[in-house]
Amino acid sequence: MRKANATSNPHTPEVIEGKLTTKSRMRKFGLLLTGPGMLWLLVFLLLPTVFLLVMAFAQRGSYGTIDWTFSIENLKKLVGFSSFGWSADNLLIIWRSFKIAVITTLLCLAVGLPMAFWIGAHSKKTSALLLALVMVPSCTNLVIRTYAWMIFLGAQMPPTWLARALGLIGEMESLYPGTFAVYIGMVSCMLPFAVLPLYTSVERLDWGIVEAARDLYAGPVRVFYHGILSQMMPGIVASVVLTLVPTLGMYVVSDLLGGAKFILIGNLIQQQFFGTALDWPFGAMLGIVLIISSVLSLIVFQKTGGKSFV
Predict the structure, then answer these.
(1) Does a cis peptide bond (omega within 30 degrees of 0) precede residue 177?
(2) Rounded to whole angstroms, how far apart are CA atoms 19 and 157?
(3) Structural domain boundaries enclosing 39
């Protein structure tokens, strides 16, 4: 309890949370606790972002150096303008990245939701074991897992034989490389991060609300929509955040499973910094676009899909 104090002097002793102290001393103690975290965010998040923003308006110098002459040329290049005219290639890459990120997120939710209910239906010990099995693949390097998918989806493997027999692909085609292989790799990579928050929401479900909805003669759809889905929205929001944002910047899976022609914004950024382009300012502009796109996607989801269903 905090006693009322007539004076606003921060150095006046008063009882705060059962202790005799001062406001000034409490502020110093709070700063001592939050200072290391704030310093970490400043050094490793805020300053690099500001530097990236400044570099985005610089220009590429000779032999890949940075010319600190500021202009909006990288912004024009981003939307397709160059000395050769206009091209929609960069915009198509950004659109393809968004489309794959959204579809991957929806697939992870579609697979992860039943999996979370199935895991939650078991005993505590069995559920812990199943969750550990879900997370085991994440302990393996992503490149190794992606190479495993390259082999498994190759031309001489059963999945390709089955796809040919069903007429899904041609006789001389294979599942790898291609869009299907990219989706498989993305979903397998992001699924564990979608299942964990969904499982947490399943564990916290109040089944009394579900029973009340049934007692009021609600149908199965309304019971799920109002009694279950509304309670799981925090877990769904967390799953979307943990899936959508990393998928937007993913480039290893698309580079290995999609082939050289399957380029996402992450691949384009990688080419600017470590590839043959060596255009760091344009790579910085793409990075800023990726950061803004991720933040806007989360805001839009919070304003629309993140609302309560009650």
Answers:
(1) yes
(2) 70
(3) 19-57
- Spatial CA neighbour of 113 closest among 222, 232, 244: 232
Would you report the helix, strand and coil content of the chain in percent, each value rounded to 5? Answer: 70, 5, 30
Is the Cβ–Cβ distance between 281 and 49 less than 8 Å? no
Three-class DSSP category at 15: strand
Single-letter amino acid code for the residue at 52: L
Residues in contact with 225: Cβ distance below 8 Å, sequence separation at least 6, in sequence order: 309
- Token pair in block for residue 133: 């099995």
Q: Which of 154, 149, 148 is nearest to 175 (CA)?
A: 154
Residue 309's pLDDT is 43
Helix (H, G, I), strand (E, B) or coil at 96: helix
Q: With a cut of 50, which residues of the chain have pLDDT below it? A: 1-6, 308-310
CB 286 within 8 A of CB 268: yes
Give pTM, 2 decimals.
0.82
Residues 221, 116 within the same domain? yes
281, two tokens: 């300012």
Q: 229 and 97, same structural domain?
A: yes
Per-residue pLDDT at 1 = 41
Contacts of 114 (CB under 8 A, 6+ apart): none
Count of domains forming the chain: 2
What pLDDT, in 10s, does the model give residues 184-225? 999 999 999 999 999 999 998 888 888 888 888 888 888 888
The total number of residues written for the chain in this structure:
310
